[in-house]
């Protein structure tokens, strides 16, 4: 293998999709398996990465009881990017850890993307990949735009400055060894976090913020589902011309 081939192999990219959740806040069938357009949400997410030239592998963490069913369904779609479907864990963190074990050896850049976040643009994926290759870890983010106040059920309190506050999105991306080390340490220390950025920061690594878009929302509530259905025809017909005007700069 010459130097160019070695660099190409070391630059391979995989995306992990934790899809073992029950979607309790939305109710009914888990959101990742609901039909959005012609396919389930999970398939639509995978198709976004299937179309991205930088991403060569996808590993899905499905509910343990549905691994065979989900594998058959995804293989029937003819997804060349699909590398493996593994059993997920009791929470998102353990599902990512299980998926990480199935990443092929040549992969050096690992993305983690929510199974219910179908409106991710190719340019945003590429920006995260490039930021990982340059700095080691990155995540899509959107600055908080709303006024923030403390309070309780009875009264509102003081205003909280929104300067420097971000809403986290996915994909989040990492050097493979950083993410593997982060999960090993989290397991050893019984550390729980809501995303992989927190685990990597626990190792004192910096994470680069990459401008995201408010269109890249996660389907969580019935209102989110209604919005996703309304936006889908526009996204389906022209994903790269989709209105991203409400970006991180707004």
UniProtKB/TrEMBL annotation:
MF term (GO), any: 2-C-methyl-D-erythritol 4-phosphate cytidylyltransferase activity
User: Which EC class, in a word?
Assistant: transferase
Per UniProt, the keywords (alphabetical) are: Isoprene biosynthesis, Nucleotidyltransferase, Transferase
Gene3D superfamilies reported in the protein's UniProt record: Spore Coat Polysaccharide Biosynthesis Protein SpsA, Chain A (3.90.550.10)
Specify the domain of life of the species encoding this protein: Bacteria
This enzyme catalyses: 2-C-methyl-D-erythritol 4-phosphate + CTP + H(+) = 4-CDP-2-C-methyl-D-erythritol + diphosphate
- CDD domains to which the protein is assigned, alphabetical: CDP-ME_synthetase
Biological process GO annotation list? isopentenyl diphosphate biosynthetic process, methylerythritol 4-phosphate pathway
Q: Which InterPro entries match?
A: IspD (IPR001228), IspD/TarI (IPR034683), IspD/TarI_cytidylyltransf_bact (IPR050088), ISPD_synthase_CS (IPR018294), Nucleotide-diphossugar_trans (IPR029044)
Q: Which pathway does the UniProt entry assign to this protein?
A: Isoprenoid biosynthesis; isopentenyl diphosphate biosynthesis via DXP pathway; isopentenyl diphosphate from 1-deoxy-D-xylulose 5-phosphate: step 2/6
| Enzyme Commission numbers on file | 2.7.7.60
Please indicate if the UniProt record lists Nucleotidyltransferase as a keyword.
yes
Under the heading SUPFAM superfamilies, the entry gives: Nucleotide-diphospho-sugar transferases
Q: Where is this site: Transition state stabilizer?
A: 25, 31
Feature type site, description Positions MEP for the nucleophilic attack: 162, 218
Family, similarity comment: Belongs to the IspD/TarI cytidylyltransferase family. IspD subfamily.
Q: What does this protein do?
A: Catalyzes the formation of 4-diphosphocytidyl-2-C-methyl-D-erythritol from CTP and 2-C-methyl-D-erythritol 4-phosphate (MEP).
Q: Which NCBIfam families match?
A: ispD
Name of the protein in question: 2-C-methyl-D-erythritol 4-phosphate cytidylyltransferase
């Amino acid at each position: 293998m010459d130097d160019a081939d070695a660099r190409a192999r070391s630059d391979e990219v995989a995306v992990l999709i934790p899809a073992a959740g029950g979607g309790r806040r939305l109710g009914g069938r888990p959101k990742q398996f609901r039909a959005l357009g012609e396919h389930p949400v999970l398939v639509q997410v995978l198709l976004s990465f299937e179309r991205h030239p930088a991403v060569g592998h996808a590993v899905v963490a499905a509910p343990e009881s549905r691994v065979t069913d989900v594998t058959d369904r995804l293989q029937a779609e003819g997804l060349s990017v699909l590398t493996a479907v593994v059993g997920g864990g009791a929470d998102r963190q353990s599902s990512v850890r299980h998926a990480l074990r199935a990443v092929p050896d040549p992969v050096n850049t690992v993305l983690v993307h929510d199974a219910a976040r179908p409106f991710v643009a190719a340019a945003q994926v590429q920006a995260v990949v490039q930021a990982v290759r340059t700095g080691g870890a990155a995540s899509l983010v959107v600055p908080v735009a709303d006024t923030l106040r403390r309070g309780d059920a009875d009264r509102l309190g003081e205003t909280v400055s929104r300067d420097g506050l971000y809403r986290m999105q996915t994909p989040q991306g990492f050097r493979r060894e950083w993410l593997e080390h982060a999960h090993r340490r989290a397991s050893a220390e019984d550390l729980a976090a809501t995303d992989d950025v927190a685990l990597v920061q626990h190792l004192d690594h910096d994470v680069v913020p990459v401008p995201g878009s408010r269109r890249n929302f996660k389907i969580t509530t019935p209102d989110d589902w209604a919005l996703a259905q309304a936006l889908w025809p526009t996204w389906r017909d022209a994903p790269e011309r989709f209105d991203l005007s409400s970006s991180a700069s707004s």
